[in-house]
Design brief:
- By secondary structure, the protein is an alpha/beta fold.
- 34% of the residues lie in helices and 24% in strands.
- It contains six helices and nine strands, in the order E-H-E-H-E-H-E-H-E-H-E-E-H-E-E.
- The strands form two sheets. The protein has a seven-stranded mixed sheet, with helices on both faces. The protein has a two-stranded antiparallel sheet with strand order 8-9.
- Strand 1 (2-7), helix 1 and strand 2 (29-35) form a beta-alpha-beta unit.
- Helix 1 runs parallel beside helix 6 (163-186).
- The two termini are 22 Å apart.
- Bound molecules: 5-O-phosphono-beta-D-ribofuranosylamine.
- Keywords: Purine biosynthesis, Transferase.
Length: 204
Amino acid sequence: LKVGVLISGRGSNLQALLDAAGDPSFPAEIALVLSNKADAFGLERAARAGVATAVIDHRAFPKDKPGFEAAMTAALDGAGVELVCLAGFMRLLSPSFVERWHDRLINIHPSLLPSFKGLDTHERALAAGVRLHGCTVHFVRAEMDDGPIIVQAAVPVLPGDDAHSLADRVLGAEHRIYPLALRLIAEGRVTVEGQRATVTGHPL
Ligand code: GRF
């Protein structure tokens, strides 16, 4: 399965995907890393792994999201991409892009969805006093941080946690479940019916 990864920054989840895909037995190949920011550190990670990169700066398409997204789809199609992974990609995608990649577009979000959609999830989890927090890999739908859930991981909120310590703990779980979710999809183990995804043949 040929995969494109969309990033905007650090790219630690991208690194987890690159590391997993570096194993010859992994059923997916990272064919393109696409960033909307030229200085995203993730671009260096991709180059180091010998993976093709592209920069499509949204600012080159002022008030033209369709143009920006058409350029991204052209780059993804050009690389033969079949599945797109959002990994810290900080632009909201339009319904038409989401529809174009329906059930072929996944995201990782740093909370146990449907709790804490949006930004600052760790601060909000601490403020809410939850005992369990975590992360979610899901198919993307037009609504932000919505869509059929593929894999989740929970981590404890510990006494003395601040947003940084909690974010670190969640990030460790993100780096485990994003490659897992990609592998499950590439192995054809994930089906979507309505609002729900079902995973077969793997003890989640
Ligand atoms: C991660 O916490 C991810 O869940 C969120 O943005 C962050 C990206 O981090 N969507 P990185 O760029 O993968 O290091």
